[in-house]
Amino acid sequence: MEISLIVITYNQIEYLRRQIESIKAQRTSADFEVIIVNDCSSDGTADFLNSLQKNENWKFINNEKNFGRAMVRNIGADLASGEILIFVDGDLYLSPNFLEAHRMFHSNNPDSVAVGKVVYENGDSLCRYLETRGAVKMEPGDNLPFRYFVSWNFSILRSAFSSLEGFDTDFSGYGGEDLEFGYRLTKASQKIYYLEEATATHIQHPSLEEMIEKRYRFGIEALPLFMMKHPPAAYDVPIYRLYENKKYRSILRIVFSSPMYNFITRLLKILKIRSNFIYDYLLHGAVFRGLNDSGKGVGSELNSNRNSIITLSLIWFLLINLIYFYQFASDRYHTLFTVIRSIFG
Amino acid sequence: MYVLIPLLVSFLFAVIGAELLRHILGEKTDGSILISGWALTAAITGYIFMILGLLHQLNSTASTIYLILLFILSLILSKGHYPFGRFFVFGGYSSTGKDIRIFFILIVMVLSISFLGALAPPSHLDVLNYHFALLRQCLQSHSLIFNPTFFYGATPFNAEMLSGFMALLSDLRGGQFIQFIAGLLLVVSVFAVGKKHFNLLTAIIASSIFVSTLFLPAILSEAKNDQLLALLSFWAFYYFARAQIESDGRALIVGAVFGGLAGGMKLYGLGIPSIGFLFIIFSAIGGKTKIDYRRIALAGAISLILILPWYIRSLILTGNPIHPFLSNLFGDRYWDSVLNFKFNLMREWRYVRVNPLQFLISPFRVTFDADAYFARIGPIYLSLLPAAILFGGKNKLLKFFGWASLIYFILWFFILHDARYLLPILPGLSLFCAYGAVRLYNSGGYYRLLISGIIIINLLMVLFIDFRSQYQKFPVVLHLESTDEFYRDLREVNKENLESGEYVKAIPEYDFLQKVNRITRETDTVGLFSYNEPFIYYFIDCKLYLLLPLWQNAFDFKSIDNKDDLRTKLNSLGITYIITDTDDDKTVPQNALLKQYDEFGSTLKGTNIFLNFLNSDCEEIVSEGRYRCFRCK
Fold this sequence. Notes:
The structure holds two protein chains of two kinds.
Chain A: E1 3-9, H1 13-24, E2 32-38, H2 45-51, E3 58-62, H3 69-79, E4 84-89, E5 92-94, H4 98-108, E6 112-120, H5 125-131, E7 153-157, H6 158-163, H7 177-187, E8 191-202, H8 208-229, H9 231-234, H10 238-244, H11 246-255, H12 258-271, H13 276-293, H14 301-332, H15 334-343
Parallel strand pairs in A: 1-2, 1-4, 2-3, 6-8
Antiparallel strand pairs in A: 4-7, 5-8, 6-7
Helix pairs in contact in A: 8-13, 11-14, 14-15
Chain B: H1 4-25, H2 31-54, H3 60-77, H4 98-118, H5 125-141, H6 158-169, H7 172-197, H8 200-211, H9 216-220, H10 226-246, H11 249-263, H12 271-285, H13 293-318, H14 327-330, H15 337-346, H16 356-368, H17 370-373, H18 379-392, H19 396-415, H20 426-441, H21 445-470, H22 474-477, H23 483-488, E1 491-493, E2 503-505, H24 510-519, E3 525-529, H25 533-539, E4 543-546, H26 563-573, E5 577-580, H27 591-596, H28 601-617, E6 618-624, E7 627-632
Parallel strand pairs in B: 3-4, 3-5
Antiparallel strand pairs in B: 1-2, 5-7, 6-7
Helix pairs in contact in B: 1-2, 1-3, 1-7, 2-6, 2-7, 2-10, 4-7, 4-8, 4-21, 5-6, 5-25, 6-7, 7-8, 7-10, 7-20, 8-20, 8-21, 10-11, 10-12, 10-19, 11-12, 11-13, 12-13, 12-19, 18-20, 19-20
C-alpha cells in the first residue's frame, strides 16, 4: 500500500459525508487506503460509518470514549499500512489531486513533511484572516519553522512517524499537540514544507467567539505544557517570548487586561469592525490571557495585573497633575513663576 | 433672618421629604434619605409657588401659610429621630490618617468661605440678570409674569420660585442662601452615598474630589439654579441605578420623580430623566431587570407630569415649549434663531467645533483649556478616570454612574459647551473616581503619599480660588461697608473663566439707576436700549422691557416705518421712560456689520427712527457718563 489517508472526526457527520465524496473523486494512480477514526461522536457518526461498506481499503474505527486529537491520530497511524501517512481533519473536503500532490511531494522530498493548504468555503473576514496566517507567510520552498506546523492537513512517511512515536498524548485538550510534534520533527532533522497543491477546503466556519475560546484554552493548557516539556523551544513561540520578558509582560497585561479586552471585544461586536490587526489583537490576546491565567508562577490574573495597573495609573495620575500645575503656575502666576525661576536660575 | 429662616425651612424640607421617601421606599431613615428628602420637598415647593403665581398669590401671607403648613405636616409625618448629626460623627475620623483629616478640614474651609460669600447681597451678574430680575418683577406684581424681551423670560424656573418663597419670608438674600444650602447638600450627598455604599475613606475622597472642582466655589454661594439641578440629577441617577440593580420598582418611581423635577428645573435638565429611562428600558429589553413595562410606563408618566407644566407654560406664552431655543422649528413669537445666532457671532462668542477629534480631546480641553469651555474642572477627574475604569468596572452602582456620565458628557459636548453644565454628573463621577483613588491610595507607601499630596494641593487651589471669588463680599458681610457701597464698587467674578476666581469690572451705573429709581414710580415702565442689561434688570424698580434691534424681535424694529408706528408700539407696552447706553457701538447696526450679516439690515430703518425719536420727541432727565434716561413726551 502506497498511501494511508487518516481522517479524524468528532461530531462532524455532515462534513464527513462531503469529505468521503471528495475522497472517492480523487484522481490518482496510487494505491491508497482510508482510515476514519471517530473519536466517540454523539451525532450519529458511528451509525453512519457502520452503514458504509467496509473493505480492506476503507477502515472505520469508533472509539468508545473521547481520547483527543493526538491519541486519535496515533490510533489511525497504528492501523495504517501505507508508506505515506496523510492526516486530515473530518471537516475538510479534498481537491481532486490532493492525494497525488502529497504522493509527488514525498517522491521528490525524502525526509520531509508536507503541510497542505487549507482554505475556507465562502469564508467571512475571519476565515480570510485565518487563511493568511502561518505557513502562507513563508516564501515557496522555504523550510517552515516548527511553530507553523499544523496537523489538519499534513503528510509524513510512516517510518518517520513511527520513529517519533507519533503525537504526544499528554496534549488532550485543544491544540499544542501539533506544535510539540512539529518541534520534534525539526529536532529529528525532518524538513517541513508548505504544499500549496494539496488543497483542502474547510467547510465549517469558526465564529470569533469560538476562536477566542480555543486560543484561550491553547494559552492556558497547551502552551504551558509545551513550555514544561521543551523549555528552550518555548522561546521560539513569539507570544511566550513576550510573556517571559518582564518589560513587555507588564505592558501586555495592561493591553490585554480584562476590562480593556472585554470592552474592545464588545465594542467591535457592536460596531462590526473587522480587520487583520483587530483579529491579531483578539486572538494573540486570548493566548496571552490564557498563558497569564495559567498561573505559571504569577497567580491569578487580578493579582498579576494589579501592580502593573497601579503603576501605570499612578504614572498617568502624576503626569496629568504635573502638566496641570505647571500650566496653572506658568499661565496665571507667571510673574511669581518668573521670579522663582530667576532665583533658582 | 435670611439665614435662620432657610435653615428652619431646610429642616422641615428634610423631615417631610424623608418621611415621604421612607413611605415610598419602605426604608429606615438614614443620612442619604434626609438629603434626597430635602431636594424632593424643595423642588415641589417650586411647583406650589408656580401655582400661587398663576393665582396672583405670590405674597408674604401665602408664604407664611405655606411655612405653617410645612410645620404642621412635619409634625404629623414625623416619626422617630433624624440622624442629622450622624454625618459628622468625629469619633469615626479619629481612626483615619492625618491626611484624611486634612482633606476634611480643607473641605470645611472651602465650604465655610462659600458660606460667608452666600451671606452677601446677590452680586453675580448672571443671578441678577436671569435668576433674580424676573423673579423680582414677579414678586412685585405678586404673580407669575412673562416678559417677552427677557432672554429666559418664559423658561422653567423652579429654583427661582424656591428663592421667591425665601424672599417673601425674609429677602432675596434668603433666596440666595437656600441655593447655597442646595450646593452644600450636594457635597454632603456625595459623602452620604460614599459612606452608605462603600466606606468612610471612599466617602471623604469622593467629597474631596468633588469639592476640588475648580469652578464650584464661583457658583456655590450664588443663587444660580445649577446647584439644585445637580442635586436632583444626582439623586435621580442614584435611584435609577438602584432600580436597575435591585429591580426595585419603587426606587424607579422615586428616580422618575427626581428626574422629572430635574427636567423641570432647567432645559438641559431634560437629559437626566432621558438617560435614566434609557438604562431602565435597555435593561428591561435585555431581561436584566424584573421591573415590568407597566411600572416603567407609570414612572415615565410621572416624570412627564412633573416636566410638562413649565414647558406648557412656555408653549402658551411664546408658541415654543423650549423658548428661546429652536425657535425656528416651533415658530416662536418672540425669538429669531438666525438673528440670535448672528448676534452671538458678532459678539465673538467662542465655541468648540463639534467633530470626533474635538470630542476625543474634550476631556483634556475641559481640564487644561479654560477658554474652550469657559472654565476648567481641574485635573483630578482626568487623572483618576483610568484607574477608576480599571478598578471600578465591577461595581454596579459605579458602573451606572460611569455610563450615565459618559452619555451626559456626549450630550454636553454636542449641545452645551460650558464646563459648569457638567455639574449634574460631577458628584457621581467623583464617586466613580474615588473608587480608583482608594485602590491606589491603599497600595500604601509612596503611592498613598502621592495621592494624598495631589488631592491636598487641589483642595488648596480651590480654597485659594474660593477666597479670590469671595473676598470682595467679606466687608459687606461683616458690616464694614453698606450694601450701597458694596454695589457701587461691584466687580463680578469673571464669568467667562469661572475657575480663575478673579474679578472683572462690573457695570458702574448703580448711582445712575438709583437716580432713575427716585424719578420713576413703580407703576412706570422703562425701555432699555443697551446690552449692559443684567445690572439694570435687577436694580431698576419699575417694570422693564428690552429694546434691542440686533438681538430678537420682541420689540420688532423691522416693522417700524415712521414715528407713529414707534409711538404706537411704545404705548402698547406702556413705556414711558427709555434708558440708553449709546456708547455701545454694537447696539446700532454698523456698515461693517451689515456687510457681514445682512439680516440686521432690515432693523436699521426702525433703529434710526427710534434714535431720532429720542432726540426730538423725548426729554433727557438723567445722565451719567454714557448712560442717559429719557422721558417720552
